[in-house]
Write a sequence for this structure.
């Protein structure tokens, strides 16, 4: 049974990246350059640092734990495969999420081709975990049901966004990427990303604001 | 103040407001606006509700599985490399094998061939012995 982890505290400040973030990004590129030079320990450090964000991004994209981990592994495999030709021309995180976006969108496209629109197959697992998490507070059955409905609603609202909007929202809201990074990851201009996010949040407002 | 949901900069204001990183004057303006604007309250609620999308912990064997895939891929790449390395040498190797077979493994000679060879060998032996004569002297 999966243990649920609360969403990252949000929102995060993104307009001006703090120095710590800049240092971390440079450190990522340095680590990747060491991987290129044959240092596999550095790959382990990169994995340690980015494993969670990539798996969680994938989970919110495909809403299935097994599939999300499989796809996240594919992302790290591609990073490892590319080590010999890696050049730090973009921020490592941007590059990583660019790969993750390609992998996720390809998977969603393939799954749609194979099965049609997939249901929220592991939502029960998710909700069971959530129940366990809130058990200490001993909510009433009614409270639990309302909570489950709310969670389903959020998941469904995210899933119903067009793919590109969904990617942009997940990167912006949950991973704390700035407009420039999202733009680079999605091969768009920053203004296009702002517009995309604006439309996405408007859509989510319409879907989610009625039940707070 | 403009409604947050009416301009694209509203998103920056919203995130700044909720993260409490806006300057106090701007934040106070937004406070007042939100009290009056149902749209902005709705946008903030939607944004906050997205936090309910919890994620499961990553499986403890995630790294082990990844490293196993990397190792398997490297192993297959190595064997593939070896295969490709040896492939161009295959005709050369085949030629060498054929030559060895030709020179060392002979098909049994027919009796006629054997007698001719024996005559030749005897003649050669006589010639070789002739070569020894001056040394004896």
């Amino acid at each position: 049974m999966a243990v649920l982890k609360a969403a990252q505290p949000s929102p995060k400040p993104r307009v001006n990246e703090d120095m710590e973030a800049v240092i971390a990004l440079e450190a990522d590129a340095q680590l990747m350059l060491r991987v290129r030079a044959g240092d596999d320990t550095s790959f382990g450090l990169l994995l340690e640092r980015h494993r969670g964000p990539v798996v969680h991004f994938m989970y919110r994209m495909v809403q299935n734990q097994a599939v999300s981990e499989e796809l996240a592994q594919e992302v790290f495999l591609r990073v490892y495969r590319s080590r010999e030709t890696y050049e730090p021309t973009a921020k490592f995180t941007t590059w990583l999420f660019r790969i993750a976006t390609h992998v996720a969108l390809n998977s969603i496209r393939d799954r749609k081709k194979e099965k049609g629109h997939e249901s929220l197959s592991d939502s029960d697992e998710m909700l069971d975990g959530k129940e366990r998490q809130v058990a200490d507070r001993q909510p009433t059955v009614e409270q639990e049901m309302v909570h489950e409905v709310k969670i389903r609603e959020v998941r469904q609202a995210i899933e119903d966004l067009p793919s590109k909007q969904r990617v942009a929202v997940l990167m912006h809201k949950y991973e704390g990427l700035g407009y420039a990074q999202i733009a680079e990851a999605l091969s768009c201009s920053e203004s296009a990303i702002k517009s995309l996010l604006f439309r996405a949040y408007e859509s989510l407002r319409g879907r989610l604001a009625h039940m707070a | 103040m403009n409604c947050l949901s009416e301009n694209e900069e509203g998103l920056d204001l919203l995130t700044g407001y909720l993260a409490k990183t806006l300057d106090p004057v701007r934040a106070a303006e937004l406070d007042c606006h939100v009290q009056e604007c149902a749209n902005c309250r709705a946008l903030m609620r939607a944004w906050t509700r997205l936090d309910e999308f919890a994620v499961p912990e990553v499986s403890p064997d995630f790294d082990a599985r990844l490293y196993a895939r990397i190792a398997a891929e490297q192993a297959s790449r190595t064997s593939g490399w070896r295969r490709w390395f040896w492939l161009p040498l295959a005709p050369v190797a085949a030629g060498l094998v054929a030559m060895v077979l030709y020179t060392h493994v002979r098909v049994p000679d027919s009796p006629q061939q054997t007698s001719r060879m024996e005559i030749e060998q005897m003649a050669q032996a006589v010639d070789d012995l002739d070569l020894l004569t001056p040394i004896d002297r």
Chain A touches chain B through 54 residues (CB under 8 Å). Residues 8-15, 118-135 of chain A have pLDDT under 50 and may be disordered. The first strand of chain A starts at residue 4 and ends at 5. The beta strands of chain A are 4-5.
